[in-house]
């Protein structure tokens, strides 16, 4: 890693918020490349994922997180505990909210979590490109977020993570909160995750988008082979499900669903590697305990 120029700034930017407010979309927009998968489905993001933006002035390491919601069970408590750790371990936070709808209990729950942190918070009012839902007035919506921010003295930044509107301003606001520091990552790197991990995620994204709620979120994907040839990169991947019925849905009539998943994922992968991809998908049924081992391995644990 090269030595950063005199006065160079760097630091970690945590992206938090309710599910589906656009955290992963924001990270992709900031780094200028799709590294985190996004979908209208909650719990699309499973792991903490870092996205790196290196500009002549600063290096930002964005930390995308799974959405925070009020815990209804033990696993939820773990999520909240992890979120708290994430909150305290970054230099600045973007608390993303959905600007197409008024502030709700979910946002206030997170605001309360932020009560005791020393980390500076920017309230990121996202989706300004979108028409307000539920016939609400934009002025009214904005007012509810002004009130959310007020007791904490949070600065508000308005933007669209989807179109990029307002993103440069957000970048400026963030720079002001960074201290002088080194390059934490090589300047040309956009994520801390290996390409293989993102490839698996791109397949999982298409499964979420195309099968919707029919295949549970527990589906796991492994990338088994990546062979780079001069003209094409050959990728073999396995999708693990828990039941035969789920395998049936994934494969579809005459293999139509798997074909659709494969061709959409392949297109995304071609963008990722900027080259041609040949993708072959396999579907395997595996009982839950085997899957959870797989999942742990995916998260970097030794199993
Ligand atoms: P996350 O769960 O907070 O990571 O949210 P995602 O990034 O997965 O986005 C959830 C949904 O909101 C997806 O369908 C996105 O396309 C959509 N979305 C995110 N940002 C924007 C935005 O600025 N404008 C609009 N119209 N949609 C957005
Ligand atoms: K989502
Ligand atoms: Mg996400």
From TrEMBL:
Entries under InterPro entries matching the protein: G_ERA_dom, GTP-bd, GTPase_Era-like, KH_dom-like_a/b, KH_dom_type_2, KH_sf_prok-type, P-loop_NTPase, Small_GTP-bd
Keyword GTP-binding among UniProt keywords: yes
Binding, GTP: 17-24, 64-68, 126-129
GO CC term, one of those recorded: plasma membrane
Pfam families attached to this UniProt entry: KH_2 (PF07650), MMR_HSR1 (PF01926)
UniProt KW keywords: Cell membrane, Cytoplasm, GTP-binding, Membrane, Nucleotide-binding, Ribosome biogenesis, RNA-binding, rRNA-binding
Entry keyword RNA-binding: yes
Region (G1): 17-24
Family: Belongs to the TRAFAC class TrmE-Era-EngA-EngB-Septin-like GTPase superfamily. Era GTPase family.
PANTHER family: GTPASE ERA, GTPASE ERA, MITOCHONDRIAL
HAMAP family: GTPase_Era
Protein's name in the database: GTPase Era
């Amino acid at each position: 890693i090269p030595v950063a120029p005199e006065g160079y700034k760097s630091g970690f930017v945590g992206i938090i918020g309710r599910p589906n407010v656009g955290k992963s979309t924001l990270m992709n927009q900031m780094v200028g490349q799709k590294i985190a998968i996004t979908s209208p489905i909650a719990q699309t993001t499973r792991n903490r994922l870092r996205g790196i933006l290196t500009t002549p002035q600063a290096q930002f390491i964005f930390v995308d997180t799974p959405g925070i919601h009020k815990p209804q069970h033990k696993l939820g408590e773990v999520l909240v505990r992890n979120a708290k750790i994430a909150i305290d371990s970054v230099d600045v936070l973007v608390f993303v909210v959905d600007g197409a709808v008024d502030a709700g209990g979910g946002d206030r729950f997170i605001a309360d979590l932020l009560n005791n942190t020393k980390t500076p918070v920017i309230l990121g009012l996202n989706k300004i490109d979108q028409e307000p839902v539920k016939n609400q007035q934009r002025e009214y919506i904005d007012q509810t977020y002004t009130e959310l921010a007020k007791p904490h003295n949070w600065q508000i930044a308005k933007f669209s993570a989807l179109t990029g509107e307002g993103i440069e301003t957000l970048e400026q606001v963030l720079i002001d909160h960074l201290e002088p520091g080194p390059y934490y990552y090589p300047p040309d790197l956009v994520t801390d995750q290996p390409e293989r991990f993102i490839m698996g995620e791109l397949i999982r994204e298409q499964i979420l988008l195309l099968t919707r709620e029919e295949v549970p979120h527990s589906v796991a994907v492994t990338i088994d082979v990546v062979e780079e040839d001069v003209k094409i990169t050959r990728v073999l991947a396995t999708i693990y499900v828990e039941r035969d019925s789920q395998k049936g849905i994934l494969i579809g009539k005459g293999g139509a669903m798997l074909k659709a998943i494969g061709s959409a994922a392949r297109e995304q992968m071609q963008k990722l590697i900027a080259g041609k991809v040949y993708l072959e998908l396999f579907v395997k049924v595996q009982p839950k305990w085997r899957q959870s081992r797989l999942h742990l391995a995916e998260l970097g644990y030794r199993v």
